[in-house]
Design goal:
The chain is mainly α. The protein has helices at about 1-15, 15-30, 30-35, 40-60, 65-75, 85-95, 100-105, 110-130, 145-165, 170-175, 180-200, 210-225, 230-240, 245-260, 270-290, 300-320, 325-330, 335-340, 345-350, 355-380, 385-405, 420-435. It is about 70% helix and about 0% strand. Helix 9 crosses helix 11 (about 180-200).
Length: about 450
């Protein structure tokens, strides 16, 4: 590690010809640099780091910030085997991605997809390090007091009632899951719904950033075993039984913060990050509970990536369905630059007229949503067999919302696309058959691939 730092420092201090030689040495030492760092991150950071060194030398950036960079590297702790600790690598990663450091070191800014995928990789790595989800044991009733068992049973039952009230079809699907998984999914659903209600519920006009800060502190307490109320206690119990990480929960709260201050998105990169915050996070929360099938040969990373795609697809569908409703609230969740490509403006959206330009634009947006659905479908069959039913059901139903938008001649200004009760009922046995017998899986053109809109009801 010391050799790597010395070589890197030489790249900045010495002349260009010597810098080139040192960069070669640095590249040759990549295995040493990567020692102890998760491979999914070491390659990314190492590549960006090496490129930045040459650019830094050429651009003659601030020596003060460069000195800060190497001081930070030098102070990172390593364990006794010489490997980077998780804490030290996290510190290093945050430093490298800091905007002031990135500008000084000429680092290429990460796209939203890259930032989010780094979260996916970390979630997958955490699960891989813990006991297998499928064989993970839960606390024995004998180790929990009778009073606490009764309180938890009441808490989980209440979570189930809320899920059944607001997401009837999804709730029905969860009945096929094991009791432990079913209760945990209900607890996560309820937390997500409560979080969403902060900015979309009846009290939303009174919600401030400070209120969201308090909600996040409350989340931290829940993960530390200090629930505030009955519903919190259900989530607190869930995170002790399954390898659920707090980061996606924090990120969902960040999405709520965006809703307080932002009502326009310049491009899809910005919108993608928002979609991750408010919906993609749900998939990352749920995978550890739903479990991966024992026979699955897919990597944990692949399953998490599919869950993320499911969340993105779901939120894109919500956005396309609610264009008119959002416009009446002064919000536009469509990429401005893509609207401009079709010669559309905000005035066109507020006018609410379906034109040929609007139809062409909507076709492109629906196509992208279905691409995410197609990506998401790949991961459904990798889940535990009993967990597939609710996901498949919601997936199929949300795909049909896109079909409904098309059936309405792309009029999502005054007509709300929805799936009727009859179609919902028909989708339940079909989804169950697909979940239990993958050989019956239809071509993607027939099953479009939607995501579990777990939290918005069907």
């Amino acid at each position: 590690m010391l050799r790597i730092m010395q070589t890197a420092l030489a790249c900045v201090v010495y002349p260009p010809d010597s810098c080139a030689r040192n960069l070669d040495i640095l590249s040759a030492s990549s295995s040493e640099f990567n020692h102890g760092i998760p491979p999914y991150e070491s390659g990314n950071v190492h590549a960006r780091f090496c490129v930045s060194l040459r650019r830094t030398r050429q651009s003659k950036r601030s020596s003060k910030t460069i000195g800060r960079f190497f001081k930070q590297m030098a102070t990172l702790g390593m364990d006794r085997s010489g490997s980077w600790t998780e804490k030290s690598f996290t510190t290093f990663s945050r430093f490298v991605t800091d905007e002031s450091v990135s500008s000084t070191l000429s680092l290429e800014p990460l796209s939203s997809e890259q930032k989010v995928y780094n979260v996916v990789l970390k979630q997958a790595a955490m699960v891989d390090k813990r006991p297998n989800i499928n064989s993970r044991t839960v606390a024995s009733p004998d180790t929990v007091s009778a009073d606490r068992q009764d309180l938890l049973a009441e808490a989980f039952n209440r979570c189930g009632e809320i899920c059944g009230e607001y997401a009837k079809t999804f709730y029905l699907g969860t009945r096929l899951m094991t009791p432990e998984r079913r209760r945990a999914i209900w607890a996560i659903y309820v937390w997500c719904r409560r979080t969403d209600e902060l900015v979309d519920g009846p009290n939303s006009p009174h919600i401030t950033p400070t209120a969201l800060d308090r909600w996040e502190q409350r989340l931290e307490d829940v993960f530390n075993g200090k629930p505030y109320d009955m519903l919190d206690s259900a989530l607190a119990d869930t995170v002790t039984r399954f390898p659920v990480d707090i980061q996606p929960f924090r990120d969902m709260i960040e999405g709520m913060r965006l809703d307080l201050v932002k009502s326009r998105y310049d491009n899809f990169d910005d919108l993608y990050l928002y979609c991750y915050y408010v919906a993609g996070t749900v998939g990352l929360m749920s995978v550890p509970v739903m479990g991966v099938a024992p026979e699955s040969k897919a990597t944990t990373e692949t399953v998490y990536a599919a869950a993320l795609a499911l969340g993105i697809a779901n939120q894109l569908t919500n956005i396309l369905r609610d264009v008119g409703e959002d416009a009446r609230r002064g919000r536009i969740y469509l990429p401005r630059d893509e609207l401009a490509q079709f010669n559309l403006s905000e005035d066109d959206i507020f006018a609410g007229k379906v034109t040929d330009k609007w139809r062409a634009f909507m076709k492109s947006q629906i196509k992208r949503a279905r691409m995410f659905f197609d990506e998401a479908e790949k991961g459904v069959m990798e889940l535990e067999k009993a967990s597939r039913w609710p996901v498949f059901t919601a997936l199929r139903l949300y795909c049909q919302i896109l079909d409904s938008i098309e059936s309405n001649d792309y009029n999502n200004f005054t007509k709300r696309a929805y799936v009727g009760k009859c179609k919902k009922l028909l989708s339940i046995p079909t989804s169950l058959s697909l979940a239990l017998m993958p050989s019956l899986l239809l071509p993607r053109s027939l099953i479009r691939s939607p995501q579990p809109s777990f939290w918005h009801g069907c």
